[in-house]
Amino acid sequence: MAHALRLGRRRMGQCWPNPAVGCVIVKDGRVIGRGATAPGGRPHAEPQALAQAGAAARGATVYVTLEPCAHHGKTPPCAEALVKAGVARVVAPLADSDPRVSGKGFEHLRRHGIEVTTGVLAEEAARDHAGFFLKVGEGRPLVTLKLANSFDGRIATATGESQWITGPEARRVVHGLRAAHDAVMVGAGTARSDDPALTVRGWGEVRQPVRVVVSRLIDVPLMSKLASTARQVPVWLAHGSDAAPATRKAWQSCGAKLIPCEIRAGRVDPHGLLRELGEQGLTRVFCEGGGQLAASLLSADLVDELVGFTAGLALGAEGRPGIGAMGVDRLSEAPRFVLDEVRAVGPDVMHRWRRA
User: Fold this and answer.
1) Domain end position, chosen among 117, 135, 153
2) Which end of the chain is more exposed for a tag (fewer CB within 10 A), N or C?
3) According to the annotation, is 102 in a ligand binding site?
């Protein structure tokens, strides 16, 4: 099962709106088939592994990281494929939370005489599929907030210089994290000041993440990397109803997709924003700031994971903070996270936290 989970993790960010599932088929102590959800979501992991195993799949044990699907969609149900192949046993950590599947896949297997074992490495699988479960259950994707700060929590000097606070090793890890998410999201301020490409570079051929810019008025320059590459790599603009029609039309002519969102207290409402992204099929969103967007998501309790990169330099109080004002008066009001990992990345420190 650990091997199947690793296979699935390699497809994170590549197969939305479907979950990143891994599958391993074993017979007589030997792996005879492997598969993972294909880029774009199809084919699923099980038929790929069954194709590798061929006739040897009869009587084999299948380890799959989520309940096999049981509904007819664009492809036949995986549960039916497993029955047809004649496998003897299916091991899966979790039931699928999609109501079209939940429990039905296991029921179909058992009805046809296949032994079903559940609960194996369930906690690990639940974390791997958390984005998919959130989209099904709450209508929103999982949100990872990334910040690259100086030791004293600044993301830029007082003049706005920010490239580069952390070193090349940290930046390479960030590109890998982008690749493991369906979308990379920034606020308008970051899009204006940094003119970022927000693409994955240095990790080979991957399905590039959608680039989401949150900007009530779409006040992002048309002479930018995002605009000039919108036809090659998707750009989605989350905006308010008061964005100028001419601005909307200009971005659409560049190839960008417009996502109208609710406005609350003068800003794009974070709950409405994530619901809109969930409706578009996103399961995992990697937010890279800036400070106001980070504060908005944290204040709304919508951040599921924190990834920080801390560099060994100090910029002082006049430097720009990584997170904007949140109106926290008491420690008990501050969102808290549980530490998952700390490690050195080149000259910097990477720390990962998850929702408590």
Assistant:
1) 135
2) C
3) no
